[in-house]
């Protein structure tokens, strides 16, 4: 076996970003994992990165097999809303509105995708440039570029400078 190989990817040893309970889902950076055991924040733990797991879901939300599931970091539950959340799995069974959990297939490629957590909309510039442009026209373009860069940073598309 190559010396570059470190460990299989279905279960990884990671650093807990927060205190975790056994079987609790969390994001470690862009990696969605289910904790194999309890771990204190900053401690190493084994996290399962791929397979079918029961994930806590938003109550009163009916989920159908095949629905995309997004992780809401504030409620620490999955739901079907992509805005301000990260795609982390696909439902493998229906879960009625009264259910507290849903069986979901998780895979690191899903949580690492850019689907979900997106920046806000930036309006079109709609700026006409005169033959001899003036400072206000250049400033409007500069402001729009700054707004676009800020949204790309928020969405994690580009790094913060």
Secondary-structure topology with pairs:
Elements lengths: L10 E5 L9 E4 L2 E5 L8 E5 L2 E6 L11 E5 L4 E3 L6 E6 L9 E6 L1 H5 L22 H20 L7
Antiparallel strand pairs: 1-4, 2-3, 3-4, 5-9, 6-7, 6-8, 8-9
Description:
The chain has 161 residues and is α+β, with helices and mostly antiparallel strands. It folds into 2 domains: 102 residues, Virus Head Decoration Protein, Chain: A, CATH 2.40.300; 43 residues, no CATH class. 16% of the residues lie in helices and 28% in strands. The strands form 2 sheets. The protein has a 5-stranded antiparallel beta sheet with strand order 5-9-8-6-7. Strands 1-4-3-2 form a 4-stranded antiparallel beta sheet. A hairpin with a 4-residue loop joins strand 6 and strand 7.
**Gyration radius over CA:** 21 Å
Number of helices: 2
Strand count: 9
Backbone shape: elongated
Brief digest:
By secondary structure, this protein is of the alpha+beta class.
List keywords for this structure.
161 residues; alpha+beta; Virus Head Decoration Protein, Chain: A; 2 domains; five-stranded antiparallel β-sheet; four-stranded antiparallel β-sheet; 16% helix; elongated
